[in-house]
Specification:
Blueprint: H1 54-58, H2 76-81, H3 85-98, H4 125-131, H5 143-152
This protein binds zinc ion (3 copies).
One zinc ion (ZN) is lined by residues 19, 21-22, 24, 30, 36, 38-39, 103.
Length: 164
């Protein structure tokens, strides 16, 4: 497979994108299956296969009648020790059969100033929802724009340590 052709690239766009986690080029399958953090799940289409619950669904481990919330509705031994090798191989076969999803790069832009791929940062969900208008809760902002919004609203949200 060759990398996807990019038409009309945005300023700063680099057509030779590689997966941040496994280093695979755009248009190709992620390396070290099934461990790449940026591989999407072909079964539920969640963007992160390693954190969807398809492995439990495929193996029919989730049961709301038998198991409780304490074990995430899973058999206690699976909750404690994780899925077994047998669970994993059944799940991987289903993924392969459904067809693995190659890496495609979707850049993030600041929803306010349009900055291309701003550095990641985090605040708590409560802080985020307090500062952001509801219709922008699913957007992404650069740290400077978030700070500007805080200032407009006379809110002080301390700079997270990992910004420096
Ligand atoms: Zn990857
Ligand atoms: Zn899934
Ligand atoms: Zn911005």
């Amino acid at each position: 497979m060759t990398p996807c052709n990019i038409v009309h690239p945005a300023p700063g766009y680099d057509a030779t994108q590689i997966c941040d986690d496994c280093g695979t080029p755009e248009g190709q399958l992620h390396n070290h299956f099934p461990c790449c953090a940026l591989e999407a799940c072909p079964l539920c289409l969640y963007w992160q296969m390693i954190s969807c619950d398809c492995i439990y669904q495929v193996n029919r481990l989730v049961n709301h009648h038998i198991w409780t919330k304490e074990t995430g509705f899973l058999p206690p031994e699976v909750y404690a020790n994780g899925p077994t090798e047998k669970h994993r191989s059944r799940w991987m076969r289903r993924i392969e059969k459904a067809g693995r999803i190659p890496f495609v790069f979707f850049p993030t832009f600041c929803a306010r100033c349009g900055l291309y791929e701003p550095p990641m940062w985090m605040v708590t969900r409560r802080q985020w929802q307090r500062v952001m208008p509801r219709n922008h809760w699913h957007d992404y902002l650069c740290w400077e724009c978030f700070q500007a919004l805080c200032r407009c609203q006379r809110l002080r949200i301390p700079t997270p340590r990992w910004i420096h």
